[in-house]
Structure prediction request, 467 residues.
Amino acid sequence: MGTYVEDDVSAKTKMSPYVEDFMAELKAKNPAEPEFHQAVFEVAESVSIVLDRHPEYRAARILERMVEPERTIIFRVPWVDDRGEVRVNRGFRIEMNSAIGPYKGGLRLHPSVNLGILKFLAFEQVFKNSLTTLPMGGGKGGSDFDPKGKSNNEIMRFCHAFMSELFRHIGPDTDVPAGDIGVGGREIGYLFGMYKKLRNEFTGVLTGKGLNWGGSLVRPEATGYGSVYFAAEMLSTRNQTLQGKTCLVSGSGNVAQYTVEKILQLGGKVVTLSDSNGYIYDEQGIDQKKLAFIMDLKNVRRGRIAEYADKFKGAVFTPTKAGMDFNPLWDHKADCAFPSATQNEINAKDAANLLKNGVFVVSEGSNMPTTIGGVSLFLEKGILYGPGKAANAGGVATSGLEMSQNSQRLSWSREEVDQKLHGIMKRIHATCVEMSARFGTPGNYVNGANIGGFLKVADAMMDQGVV
Ligand code: NDP
Prediction:
């Protein structure tokens, strides 16, 4: 998978002088954080249109304040593995912006985690949470701990050690973490258990909890379902539906699994899934029975996607390696693409392959899966391109619904939560459409999402003064 490439930007985009100066200062102040530069650049480009019309935001240095985390917490996480050896990881929590509510955003456990990656994710989260219309600020955290190959006891010891520091900094009205890559229901359970013990209180301090201890129905499904609802909304602007559409999905974790489930419910056909070792292509389509196999493989047996091709005749597994300059998963005939693995998984070459193969809908389940060069190509061709901060906001939106249920000590039914999620995704889509048109770029969901997310936070910051 690629990272942010300078050439990607300069070759495709002519920056305005304001954005050029702003980015130069950001890079000087935050060196060696390419993903953070990439995420900020995309927002700055969109928001510069707003700043031209509203110089009061520029005078109040709103964007300059938004790129500076309100607080960055970095801590040591020592734990003992099954052989009795001491291990040391690094833990992080970035509390980015609390103008419209308590910090909210996931925890990622993956060896690639570093400060720059978490700052990009926390920055994106601020805009995403604003778009949901719920009162949530933005944050993100995690560790460079690698859960792969670890026993259940090792996962528990690590999560307990991680929370034995994090508990000081979070709380139901301060900062409410959730899951992300490497953090699912099991990890949230261990984290919650240690928080409860240390604080001696049972509160909704984490979301993604188990159903019988404060969790919400539909939270596990929400990001994937939301991304497909968003794609359906985009398709409806061209009087089309997902019925009969061929879809490429990457990843095979939480977001990918429920993306497949919802596509199947809406009559689409899914032909790919992946993990970090490679991808499977199943020309006949991944049906509900095959999806059940994947859920067991990934969530219970914690195996590799290659096993799918051993199990189902006709499916082909193709290995992929880090450092390849394109991903063959994106080089198949299809109508829609749902990247649902990780950042920068679609570069300019992959974007060109998708377009060549007929893809005209891209709904981003993962965060910032497309490089700047790839995004430029999608926008240039005018396809239905839903950026992650809009398309995958269903997860955090349902976390917001979990918080509401916790504070009212109520549990809503599956239908009730799903209906609210669907309504929120429709409203996010409508905001993107409205904002992109209001600021002179109709149909550009990138500008629509960035501007829609920015305005609410910017106005709250203006109201609250220089803090
Ligand atoms: P999971 O850990 O459940 O699954 C991640 C999947 O992506 C796995 O198949 C994993 O393969 C693959 N993957 C991760 N990193 C890489 C990499 N560097 N190269 C190749 N494949 C990789 O995570 P989620 O499904 O929760 O998250 C997926 C994406 O969705 C992330 O970008 C996340 O930030 C985003 N997201 C998640 C939300 C949520 O509610 N969970 C909400 C909004 C966005 P392997 O097992 O081999 O590592």
Observations:
- The longest helix spans residues 414-438.
- Residues 1, 110, 112, 179-182, 184, 223, 251-256, 275-276, 340-342, 365-367, 392, 395 surround NDP (CB under 6 Å).
- The CA atoms of residues 71 and 337 lie 36 Å apart.
- The chain has three domains: 4-67, 71-202, 222-391.
